């Protein structure tokens, strides 16, 4: 759960219960740890020397599992993004102990008090991480970005890189990053606007203590450095996806548009937060005008992110064009191989395609199996995510039993009425008898139980 932090430890006991309930691994089996130690010592022998290129990384200050480093240069009116991605495949032997454990896990699991990594720390936070303490093996994607934001994969190579600096979102300055960083992000944003993309990046939530002893959920607006950095990853993923689709191979990230029922629910949610969403304005247009600096808009952005009909992975299929509705494009995941299993194989395929080599059979075979594996991992991550949010809401409301709250009914089903509180980022259920979507009942909090991770409301009057 990367979108929630708990600096005061208010959730500590509840998080321990979540880790136990969902069997979040606390460490790696001894044979996997031993194999990773051996793999970490493997010298790079198939990598060009690109240590002279001025790469930097940009991440949260505390991050040590660094998937990406970047350098930018002008190429006429184009910008050339050299995007170095951790060469995880160099260290992970197909069919070996580390590989087998990664297939069991699927992805790194995040909770506010720590993570359960996809790979052992000696790799993910050491030999494979693009830290600035020495040369690291990487796969460099060279992505050409045109003035209108269109992207093209110019090439890919295995290379040694040396990061010049480990930059942090909250401290980075314009002087720290390569020239063209802001302009490249602007071009990618322009291309998104042209495509009609509806990508939404909600801000981070934080559990904060109040003066009265209670807790609240606050939103920390995303920084410009985060959005610009995300544009680099988006550019590379779009370019890789296009190259793989053209080569009739690959694994793609797809997502359907929210259905009419989901959009209608969001309209009621917007009303709950007092947001003016004209009836003739489509969701994607309205969503792109939201700001994480406004707490109510930030809360609504969280609900938009959750309203999609579920992103998933699909392998290349002849005659089909994989489509991601939020990106309004064919899209792939290739830029976080330390955190997502699928990316390791997409990187290998893109490396082969860019150099006119056949995609290894083991990669093609993995593309057929990965959708199910990643779906299982994402389902677990989603259950943990929901449990953490439920815990945070119960902690925030604990001690406020008996208080009145204004709410909006967003939808009804066999489980009752789903309601959105008007002044807090809390979604709950109540008895739906006599209610309809859009109704605005006044509610009383009757229970907030952090141990059970539940809250309960009843209608007043």
Walkthrough of the structure:
By secondary structure, the protein is α+β, with helices and mostly antiparallel strands. The chain has a domain at 4-256 and 310-374. It contains twelve helices and 19 strands. It has helices spanning 12-21, 30-40, 88-91, 97-105, 121-127, 181-195, 224-246, 260-272, 283-288, 295-307, 341-354, 361-397; strands at 4-5, 48-49, 55-59, 68-75, 78-86, 109-111, 114-116, 136-145, 151-161, 163-168, 204-209, 215-220, 251-254, 312-315, 404-413, 416-421, 427-430, 442-449, 454-459. It has a five-stranded mixed beta sheet with strand order 2-9-8-5-4. Strands 17-16-15-18-19 form a five-stranded antiparallel beta sheet. A hairpin with a 5-residue loop joins strand 8 (136-145) and strand 9. Helix 11 (341-354) packs antiparallel against helix 12 (361-397). The two termini are 38 Å apart. The model has no long low-confidence stretch (mean pLDDT 92).
Number of helices: 12
Q: Return the average pLDDT rounded to an integer.
A: 92
Extended strand count: 19
Strand order of the largest sheet: 2-9-8-5-4
Strand content: 15-25%
Overall shape: it is: globular
Largest sheet: 5 strands, mixed
Distance between the termini: 38 Å
- Low-confidence spans: pLDDT under 50, at least 5 residues? none
């Amino acid at each position: 759960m990367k979108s929630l932090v708990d600096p005061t430890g208010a959730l500590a006991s509840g998080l321990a219960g979540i880790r136990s309930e969902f069997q979040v691994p606390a460490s790696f089996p001894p044979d996997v740890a031993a194999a990773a130690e051996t793999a970490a010592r493997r010298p790079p022998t198939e990598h060009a020397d690109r240590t002279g290129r001025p790469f930097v990384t940009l991440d949260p200050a505390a991050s040590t599992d660094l998937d990406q480093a970047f350098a930018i240069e002008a190429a006429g009116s184009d910008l050339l993004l050299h995007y170095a991605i951790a060469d995880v495949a160099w260290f992970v032997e197909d069919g070996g102990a580390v590989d087998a454990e990664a297939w069991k896990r699927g992805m790194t699991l995040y909770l506010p008090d720590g993570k359960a990594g996809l790979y052992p720390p000696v790799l993910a936070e050491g030999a494979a991480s693009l830290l600035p303490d020495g040369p690291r093996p990487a796969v460099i994607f060279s992505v050409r970005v045109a003035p209108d934001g269109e992207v093209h994969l110019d090439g890919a190579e295995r290379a040694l890189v040396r990061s010049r600096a480990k930059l942090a979102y909250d401290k980075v300055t314009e002087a720290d990053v390569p020239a063209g960083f802001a302009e490249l992000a602007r071009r990618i944003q322009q291309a998104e606007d042209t495509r009609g993309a509806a990508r939404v990046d909600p801000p981070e939530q934080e559990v904060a203590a109040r003066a009265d002893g209670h807790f609240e959920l606050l939103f920390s607006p995303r920084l410009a450095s985060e959005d610009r950095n995300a544009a680099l990853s988006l550019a590379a993923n779009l370019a890789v996806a296009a190259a793989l689709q053209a080569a009739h191979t690959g694994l793609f990230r797809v997502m359907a548009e929210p259905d009419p029922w989901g959009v209608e629910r969001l309209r009621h949610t917007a009303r709950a937060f007092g947001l003016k969403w004209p009836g003739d304005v489509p969701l994607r247009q309205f969503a792109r005008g939201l700001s994480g600096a406004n707490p109510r808009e930030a809360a609504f952005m969280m609900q938009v992110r959750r309203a999609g009909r579920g992103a998933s992975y699909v392998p290349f299929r002849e005659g089909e064009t994989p489509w991601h509705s939020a990106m309004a494009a064919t899209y792939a995941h290739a830029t976080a191989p330390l955190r997502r299993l699928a990316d390791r194989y997409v990187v290998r395929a893109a490396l082969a395609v860019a150099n006119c080599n056949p995609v290894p059979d083991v990669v093609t075979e993995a593309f057929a199996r990965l959708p199910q594996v990643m779906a299982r991992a994402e389902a677990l991550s989603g259950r943990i995510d929901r449990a953490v949010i439920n815990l945070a809401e119960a902690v925030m409301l604990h001690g406020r039993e008996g208080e009145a709250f204004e709410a909006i009914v967003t939808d009804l089903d066999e489980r009752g009425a789903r309601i959105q509180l008007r002044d807090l980022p809390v979604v709950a259920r109540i008895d739906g008898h006599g209610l309809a979507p859009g109704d605005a009942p006044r509610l009383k909090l009757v229970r907030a139980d952090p141990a059970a991770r539940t809250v309960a409301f009843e209608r007043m009057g």
